[in-house]
Amino acid sequence: MTPVERPLSPFLIYKPQLTSVLSFSHRATGVALSLGTLLLVWWLVAAATSEEVFGAAQWFLGSWLGLLLLLGWSFAFFFHLCNGIRHLFWDAGFGFELHTAYASGWTVVAASVALTVIAFAAGLAVRG
After folding, report:
1. Is residue 48 part of a domain?
2. CA distances from 66 to 9, 11, 12, 42, 60 (A)
3. How many angstroms separate the CA atoms of 115 and 72, rounded?
4. Nearest to residue 112, comparing CAs of 83, 69, 70?
5. Burial of 54 (0-12, 13-18, 19+ CB in 10 A)
6. What domain count does the chain have?
7. What is the C-alpha separation between 106 and 61, in angstroms, rounded?
8. Residue 88: which domain range?
9. What is the pLDDT along the chain (128 residues), one digit of tens a residue?
């Protein structure tokens, strides 16, 4: 039996480019934000329930796992926000040139990291 030649998916053929990686990442951070919202809802319900339940939620969010989840959720928020602004410019017809698309893509990545670091540092400073 000879193997049947079937077409390959594009992600198996082409080398990943910044634009395709950012497109996938935009979708992935949207999903992460949806899942992270469950953490926010849990915290709010705990605050409305009792002091003990809220204390447990605060303890978890202050643990290394909770802080890691909050860091990831913060990055997802800022990345999705910055990339969404980039998409608004595209919707208006700006930024389609190749060099501009790459420059704006790297700007999204840098701004996302910077905003995450600033927000997390401010949160840790307030926390004490």
Report:
1. no
2. 37, 34, 36, 13, 6
3. 12
4. 83
5. middle
6. 1
7. 31
8. 26-32+63-127
9. 677 787 777 767 778 899 999 999 999 999 999 999 999 999 999 999 999 999 999 999 999 999 999 999 999 999 999 999 999 999 999 999 999 999 999 999 999 999 999 999 998 899 76
